[in-house]
Amino acid sequence: MHSRTLLRKLQPAALAAGLLLGVFGSGGARAGVFDDEEARKAIVDLRQRLTQSEEQSKAREAAASAQIVEQLTALRRSLLDLNNQLEAMRGELAKLRGNDEQLSRDVAELQKRQKDASQTLDDRLRKLEPTKVAVDGREFMVEADEKKAYDDAIATLRGGEFDKSVAALAGFQKRYPASGYLDSVRFWLGNALYGKRDYKDAIVAFRSFVATAPEHPRAPEALLALANSQAEMKDARSARKTIEDLVKTYPQSEAAQAGKERLASLK
Q: Can you tell me the distance from the alpha carbon of 208 to that of 252, in angstroms, rounded to the nearest whole number?
């Protein structure tokens, strides 16, 4: 750029030099054509042209420089704006990532709560649903509270709390009159009454059981317990009759064998 500028500056000077040579270089043949005054005017004119040309060149250079500076300033401003936009985008991206991570944690927590709630509901429903039980070789469906009432009553009997078990078993009969447990409840009620030495009511309970469920696996035991209750009441005759019925009706049962041995003491 500087070389072209220098050439532009030198061109008017060279032209002027050429003119001067043309004027003065031909020696005396043309010396009379121009006088000194005209030569001076020509030189002044050439100098003015050179000065004007230099000023115009400087003006053009200044304008070009100003334009370049303006363009560079605009470019810097654009780069700065672009950098700010990139930083803003990075911030938004980081925020979105943070939101995504939090959202993932929230979703995981919600899923866990839903699973726990479902499990709790299933457990509660399972407790409320009928359950199949097997008692004395028989299977049937019972409600959760019904099963609990029976298990609690039997637990008190096994613990030797006869008064409490009598109340629990008698209450069960009233509360669940159609229960699959009912035959077993009658049998154990007779045993609870026998345990508390209430032989009279024990006799009633055992008779009710045998009359209601003669095919029950515990019917032979009930007849033997009935005979024992009658014996405790000093009613040997009734006790012998009951044992005879036991041996006749259930001859192969263990209770029948035990009854035969019991007969010897009933005189």
A: 23
- Going by pLDDT thresholds of 50, 70 and 90, the confidence category of residue 183 is very high
Tens digits of residue pLDDT in 28-81: 444 554 578 888 888 888 888 888 888 887 888 888 778 888 887 887 888 888
What is the gyration radius of the CA atoms in the chain, in angstroms?
A: 63
CA dihedral 202, 206, 212, 214 (to 10 degrees): 180
- Model confidence band, residue 233 (pLDDT cutoffs 50, 70, 90): very high
Closest by CA to 9, choosing from 58, 44, 42, 45, is 58
Beta strands of 129-264 (E only): which ranges?
131-135, 138-142
Buried b / exposed e across 81-109, counting CB within 10 Å, b at 16+? eeeeeeeeeeeeeeeeeeeeeeeeeeeee
**3-state DSSP call for residue 58?**
helix
Which among 250, 228, 249 is positioned nearest to 238, based on CA atoms? 228
**Burial status of residue 249 (CB atoms within 10 A of its CB: 0-12, 13-18, 19 or more):** middle
CATH-assigned architecture of domain 132-263: Alpha Horseshoe (1.25)
HSE toward the beta carbon, residue 153, CA cutoff 13 A: 25
Q: How far apart are CA 139 and CA 136, in angstroms?
A: 9
> Integer distance in angstroms from the first to the last C-alpha of the chain?
149
The beta-strand segments (E) located in the chain are 131-135, 138-142
